[in-house]
Amino acid sequence: MSDENTLSIQALARQNVRELTPYQSARRLGGNGDVWLNANEYAIAPQFELTAQTFNRYPECQPALVINRYAAYAGVDPEQVLVSRGADEGIELLIRAFCEPGKDAILYCPPTYGMYSVSAETIGVEGRTVAAKADWSLDLPAIEAALDGVKLVYVCSPNNPTGNLIDPAELRAVLEMTRGRAIVAIDEAYIEFCPQATVTGWLQEYPHLAVLRTLSKAFALAGLRCGFTIANGELIALLMKVIAPYPLSTPVADIAAQALSPEGLAIMRQRVVEVSENRAWLMAELEKCDCVEQVFQSETNYVLARFTASSAVFKNLWDQGIILRDQNKQPGLSGCLRITIGTRQELQRVIDALQPLPGTNAPFNEQNSPRKEHM
Predict the structure, then answer these.
(1) 0.85 cut: is pTM over it?
(2) How far apart are CA 261 and CA 230, in angstroms?
C-alpha cells in the first residue's frame, strides 16, 4: 500500500480514534512466561462438553436458560438481567445508551479499571476523573462537584487493581447525589470473592443503578467472554435497543448455562475457597520479603503490593517466566505490582523469585543478591 493511501485512511478515521491508546490487556502486553499472573484469570481450565448442536441457526439474542439461571443466582428477576460479550460490552452499552458523543461525560475514580476511559474515548464521550483518596475511598464532595454534564458514573467494587471494597455508605451517597441526573454502574466483576457486599438488593430503591458482572473470574471462564448487566427493567430495555442482535454464540450460551447450574455454582464456590486460602498464604509470604514495602488488603483473586525498585523486580520475574501486572502508571500506585492468585505451586515460584531480592537499603542489580535475614 502506498504512503498516499495510508495517509488517506488515517485522515478518514475519527480524530479521537487516531489518537486513542487502546486498552493494554494482558494478552496485548505479551511475554513468554510459564507462570501467568497478570490477568486475574483462574489458573486451571474447567472442563465442559458442548450439548448444543444447532450451529446452522442464529442463537437467541438473550438465551432464556442463561438469563433465568443467572437471575436465580443473583436473586433478581429475569427481566432485570442482560447477558453480553463480557462485562466489557456492558460498560460500552451503557455509554452508547445514555451518553451523547461530544456533549455528555462519564465519571470514574482512578486508580481503577481502564476500560471505562477507553470505551468513552472510543465513542467520543468525555471521561472525567475524580481521583480516589489516599486510602482509596471515594472523594464524595469532589464527585458531587464534578457531576455537571455527567450521565454515567462507574464505581468498581471490589476495585481493580487495588482489591478493596468501596464502603456501602459511599456507594449510597453516590446513588443519592445522582438521582435524576446520571446512571451509576457498580462493577462487581470480583463480587464472588465477597458476595455479602453486592448491591443487587438495592435495585428497587435506586432505579438508576446498574450492576456489572462476569463469568471471567470466579467462574474461571475468561475465554468464554460472557458478562451480565443487572438493572431495573426500564434500563435493561434501553440496553436491548443498542446491543448486537446475536451477542452470545451458541457454544458460549451452552457453557454459560452449564456453569450456572447447581453443580456449576457449587464448583465455583469451592474455587473461591481455594483462591481465598492461596491469597492469604501469598500475602503472609510477601510480608517476609525484603523487596516488598507494603501488601494491600484484598477481597479479590489478586493482591496488590508495593515493591522496592518495582520495575527491576517486574523485569527480574519476567526474565524467569513469571508474568505480573505493572501498575506504576496508575495514579497513586507508584512502585505497585499486581499478582493474580494462581496455584500454590505458581505462587511458590513467585516467592522463591522474590526472596533473594534486596530491600530499601540495599542496591538492586539484575543478578539475584543474597537476601538479608530479618533482625
Answers:
(1) yes
(2) 19
